[in-house]
Specification:
Length: about 130
């Protein structure tokens, strides 16, 4: 199975994503912000990085750029629910500009996460 890095500042959302991914048999490394995620890239390579876009300290766009520098072939799934002054769609469009392979809008169903991860890891297009 795959080695996955999950970067999410909300503990409840992070736990749910980790639970789904581990349920699929993947090895998961989890972090609560982008700064720690970038530090943990040294534990890679990772097959997939799943990152929230809007986080304190270091955001998901910086995580995506760091992943692309270190592991250019790693698949990246960006997720966002937006913020009061930044709609999720705008945040996720920014991630596409920085080469995320797929995006999910929060809230999403576990099945949507499973399907998107499977598509990314099996080489199919996702969205």
């Amino acid at each position: 199975m795959a080695k996955v890095l999950v970067v999410e500042d909300s503990p409840a959302v992070r736990l749910a994503m980790v639970d789904v991914l581990e349920g699929l048999g993947h090895t998961v490394v989890e972090t609560e912000n982008g700064r720690i995620a970038i530090e943990r890239l040294g534990e890679g390579p990772f097959d997939l990085v799943l990152t929230d876009v809007l986080m304190p300290e270091v955001d998901g766009i910086e995580v995506i750029k760091a992943v692309r520098r270190v592991y250019p072939d790693t698949k990246i799934l960006a997720v966002s629910g937006g913020a009061p002054n930044l709609p999720a769609g705008y945040a996720l469009k920014m991630t596409e500009m920085f080469s995320a392979d797929a995006v999910l809008y929060k809230p999403f169903l576990n099945e949507e996460l499973r399907k998107t991860v499977a598509n990314l890891l099996n080489g199919a297009g996702a969205g």
